[in-house]
């Protein structure tokens, strides 16, 4: 079986796309599977062209792995019923064609754990978060990061900078410098590529919490922890499901979301850095265990927006669908959201 994997960025970005590339390389080791990859494909009609090229080479499964690929992937699936198309994003439910599905993980779960590490590490009580676009996933991650940090340090605040780009090193450096000038001493992000944010923060003597990929080696002593995608299990299982002729009506012919509670969240807690003491590690791991229980969640009310509006009622645990529809930043976050992309 031939499988296509499309990436928006470089397969060596120490971030989102490198995590995808790692899974693609692991798929190549599966007997009977041939993998075609394409990188640096923008969120335009270029995605459609790339999918067609892969189809012409015999691809029967195509993974379109960037957020903005969704509409192109769905349309392509409708026109090519003999090819199974998967979108990596998980932000939209609906009645999908029998050859289409989306997959993702409850990213905010490990992000909140990274927030705990940040809340413990900061000396200024100012955390920085550099994000690309005000999409639902970014909003959930920002909120979860602040909630996690505030759970161990009620005085902490998270300061935002928006880059309006998944990977723009110039804007990333400017963002870190601007936040550093405000006293931020721990940085996290929702960018595709991590290198510039990490290196700039490191040069400032700040700590970092990673996202998408375990960049402990890159960050060195600045590394606290982070969140790292392990796409291999779910992508292998999707390919297996297709090869067995069982995709239609399966869990993947829908909006599949991995979670801690189900034991299948593809976004895992990354390694701890040398400055994270055992007591902090134990506290974070205990929280991870708690989040793995059914009926538990980082978004447990009462939770309030910046303006005091109640976001989650007292005692209520917000569902993934609820969280995916959040449009406000929680108390403790400093900054505003630009208009959605």
TrEMBL record:
PANTHER family in the cross-refs: ABC TRANSPORTER SUBSTRATE-BINDING PROTEIN
Name recorded for this polypeptide: Basic membrane lipoprotein
UniProt GO cellular component terms: plasma membrane
Swiss-Prot/TrEMBL keywords: Lipoprotein, Signal
Pfam family, one: Bmp
Domain ABC transporter substrate-binding protein PnrA-like: start-end pairs: 2-251
């Amino acid at each position: 079986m031939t499988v296509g994997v499309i990436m928006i960025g470089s397969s060596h970005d120490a971030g989102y796309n490198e995590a995808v590339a790692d899974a693609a390389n692991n798929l190549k080791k599966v007997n009977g599977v041939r993998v075609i990859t394409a990188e640096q494909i923008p969120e335009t009609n270029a995605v459609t062209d790339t999918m067609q090229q892969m189809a012409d080479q015999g691809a029967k499964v195509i993974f379109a792995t960037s957020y903005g690929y969704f509409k192109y992937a769905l349309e392509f699936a409708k026109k090519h019923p003999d090819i199974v198309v998967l979108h990596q994003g998980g932000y939209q439910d609906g009645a999908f064609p029998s050859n289409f599905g989306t997959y993702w993980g409850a990213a905010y779960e490990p992000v909140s754990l990274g927030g705990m590490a940040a809340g413990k590490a900061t000396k200024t009580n100012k955390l920085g978060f550099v994000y690309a676009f005000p999409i639902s996933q970014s909003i959930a991650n920002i909120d979860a990061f602040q909630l996690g940090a505030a759970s161990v340090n009620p005085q902490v605040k998270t300061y935002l900078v928006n880059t309006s780009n998944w990977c723009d090193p110039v804007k990333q450096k400017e963002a870190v410098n601007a936040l550093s000038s405000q006293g931020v001493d721990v940085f996290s992000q929702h960018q595709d590529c991590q290198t510039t944010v990490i290196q700039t923060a490191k040069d400032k003597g700040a700590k970092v919490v990673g996202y998408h990929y375990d960049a402990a080696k890159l960050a060195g002593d600045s590394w606290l922890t982070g969140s790292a995608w392990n796409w291999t299990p779910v992508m292998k299982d999707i390919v297996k499901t297709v090869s067995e002729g069982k995709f239609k009506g399966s869990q993947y012919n829908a909006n599949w979301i991995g979670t801690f509670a189900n034991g299948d969240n593809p976004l895992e807690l990354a390694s701890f850095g040398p400055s994270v003491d055992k007591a902090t590690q134990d506290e974070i791991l205990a929280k991870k265990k708690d989040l793995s229980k059914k009926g538990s969640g980082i978004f447990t009310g009462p939770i309030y927006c910046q303006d005091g509006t109640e976001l989650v009622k007292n005692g209520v645990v917000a569902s993934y669908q609820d969280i995916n529809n959040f449009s406000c930043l929680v108390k403790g976050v400093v900054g505003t959201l630009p208009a959605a992309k």
